[in-house]
Structure formats: structure tokens, C-alpha cells
Amino acid sequence: MSSSRKCARRRDDLAPPPPPPCRTHSRFPLRAPPLLHPISSHSPPLPPQPWSRRQPPPPSPDAVSAAIASLPSRLTPPVLASSLASTSDARLLLPLLDHSLRLPAFRPDPAPFLVAIKRLAAADLYADFDRACALVFSLLPSLPSPGPLLRAALYFYCQFGRLGKAFHVYTLMRGSADPAARPSADSYHTLFTALLSRGRGDTMVHYMYMDNVSALFRQMLEEGIPPDTRTLNVLVRGYAQSLHLNDALRVFHQMRPLYGCEPDAFTYSYLVHGLSAQGRTRNARELFDEMRGKGLLPTEPACNTFVSALAVAGEVDEAEGIMWELATAGRVVDDITRRAVVEELARAGKREDADRVVRELEDKGIVNSREGQALLSSIHDDHEVQSMTIMKTTLNVDDRGRNTW
To answer: Which of 68, 123, 215, 251 has the fewest C-beta atoms under 10 angstroms from its C-beta?
Structure first.
């Protein structure tokens, strides 16, 4: 055997064994899909994955070193807070905090952490904000007056939509030894609003979160914190958005005698909006008259829903009167509501009144000529459709004009 054959056999012995065949339960073996663009040494490199809005690239080591070097030699909490407030790049705040905590002579204080938390949240740097809050939570036993820190962390966690983190802060606040760090009425209001912002327009999701809101409200009463009108409005709005209007009315009727709070324009607007959405126009009208008697003005969504509900319910003359009353008071209904009033007038056989309403809308400057023509055309189109339907029924013809006898 020649030396070349011996070397080839030796190389074959050193080569790795071939991979085992792929076993599948199918009759056909698995095959890799063909490459659309074969990889070669001349293929361009893949572009780097871009950083998301909440995950910016970290600062360079040189920038971190320069920021640390710019700190004064005798670092105190007020000096560090001033340095953090004047730092142009918010990504450097957390490295500066880490560096200051490693100094043996530095004593932690809430002021630098409060500046860092607010700036990181304003810059939408959630990862750094969460790490800064974790540092605060680890130093809570040694921090004097942690109330402002905990309230800021609770508020910004709710703004970021991190309800689990927010309730963790709420638990820390309830267990704090400092009475000033306990949850206040503002803290509960922040949690209520964050819970009710879930689900968007889903009434079932709103009602599911109302159980949490009710439990928090009971804890608020057990803590001896008296509710104010703003807090009770959150309960009314939550029940109204979930279309549980009886619960909303129960809270409304308890505001004065039980809690000593006076309903405001938002209280009435939530109830009028919810009752109108349910078609309970009589109850909505009673609350509307009550709030107007107090000189209160409903919000724009409540105005639109109330006027539309009256028009659709057949009370179109009353809907028109309320629309003009609200326009005089400075609340102009939207285009959908105006169209509903005009079309319901025409559908009730009051074509002249519908034309008059459109002309008055143009004269008052609420709509321009193009929008007025659009309203009139919608009336005429609807009238033509009704006329064609009556004609086909009378003549017994189908859509193609053929006799149906």
C-alpha cells in the first residue's frame, strides 16, 4: 500500500462520524428548505437589530468613565442630586447611582433617587427605571422619609402599565413604619385609574377589574382615609363603563349622606353617558336637568351620547332642543350626533324641520356649507330609498323591475 493511501485512510479515521439519519413518523424524510439566497463569502453581513424605543443602547464605557470623573471628590446627597439633574444623558444616571453607593463615605438619601426615578421615567427608560426602583426598595430600611420615593414609584409604574409592580409598591407603602409613607387618597386614586384603564372599551373587562377597585376602596376606608369626590367619581365611572348603572347610581346616592361629598360635572356626565348607552333616556334626562339646575355642563361624550339616544328613541324634538341648549352653553355635538338628529327628523316625516336644522347649523357657524350639503344629501338619499321601497311594494316589482306576480 502506498504512502498516499495510508495518509488518506488515516485522515478518514480522524474525521467525525456522519450524522445519524433523521427518523420521522412519515413516509417522507424531512428535508431542509432550499435557500433563496445561497450564503457565500461575498454575501453582505446581516444588519444589526435595531434597539426598541424602550431599550436604547447602553452608554459607552468612555461616557460612563467621563461622567464619574466629573463628580466632585466630596460627594454628598445634595451634590449628587444636583449632578443627576444636570446630566444631559439619562442613561448615565444609573451608573452614577451605582458608583455613589460603592463609596464608603456616602450615605444614601432619597433626594438623588427621586431625581433619577423622575428623569428615567420621563425619558421612557423603563429598564433603568425598574433597576433604580429596585435599589430604592433594597435600601428602604436605611432611607429616611421614603414616602416621596414610594409615591413616585407607584405613579410611574402605573404610567408604564406595570400593575404588578405598582401593587408591590402599594404593599411596601402599607407595611412602612413611616406614617408619611402610607398610601394616601392620591395613591388610591392612581391605582383606581390604572385598573380602569385596562380593557379599553370591553365592558366585561371593566366589570372584572371593578372587583379589585371595590376591594381597594374597602381597604381605603379601613385605613381611615376619607374618600373625596374624585375617588368616588372613579367608582361611578367604572360601574358606568361596565354598564352596571344600578351600582353607579348607588354610589351616586351615597356621596352626600354617607361620605359628605358633592357630585360634580364628571359625576353627572358618567351617569348620563351610561344611562343613555343603555337606552334609559328618562333617567338620563332627570340627571341632566338636575346638573343643569346646578349650573354644571356635561362633558362632550355625555352630550353626544345623550342627544343621540333621545333622537334614536323617537324623542327627536327634545333631542333638537337639548342640542341647541348645549350649543348655546358652549358644548357642540359631533357630526355623528348632528346627523342622527337630522335623519331622525326626516324619518319622522319632518323634512322641513330637518332642512331648517341644517340651515341653522350653517348660520351659527357650527358646520360649513360642504358639511351642510352632506347632511342634506344624507336626508335625500334616505328619502329616495324609502320612496323606492314603497314603490316596489305597491307595484309588486323586484330590484330589476320585473313583476313578482
So the answer is: 215
